[in-house]
């Protein structure tokens, strides 16, 4: 059995359903709890279980990230980064508020859990977290 706790959310999983029920009853004696049933969404991960296995997705997380970046009407691209794009730490003006850059890059890092195809591009832009510039934000 596995028990995953994140702030006020708990995920309990395992192969012994009787033991899981016993643990839930024990926890309900000490804490106010709601059983939300089978896991479908947790920390930005969408979970779909079937007889073929477990499928993880971050579709909603990715769409929310696109909205935060203001790119809802942008056309989709075949590759996450221009081929042969050379990013430089001293090219362009510094961002007046680097928090937006850091937030977007951090969110993209989390998105690589289910989208390993963007890992290289995210790794490239994550090198400039200390002093992000306008040209780097455009790349993000």
Q: Measured on Cα atoms, how large is the radius of gyration? A: 20 Å
Summarize the main sheet: 3 strands, antiparallel
Secondary structure category: alpha+beta
The beta-strand count equals 5
Name the helix and strand elements from N-terminus to C-terminus, one letter apiece. EEHEEEHHHH
Helix share of residues?
A: 25-40%
What's the mean pLDDT score? 91
Uncertain segments: none
Approximate strand percentage: 15-25%
Terminal residue distance: 40 Å
Strand order of the largest sheet: 3-4-5
Shape field: elongated
Give a written overview of the molecule.
It is elongated and about 60 Å long. The chain has a three-stranded antiparallel sheet. The protein is built from five helices and five strands, in the order ββαβββαααα. The chain is an alpha+beta fold and 140 residues long. Helix content is 36%, strand content 16%. α2 runs antiparallel to α3 (99-111).
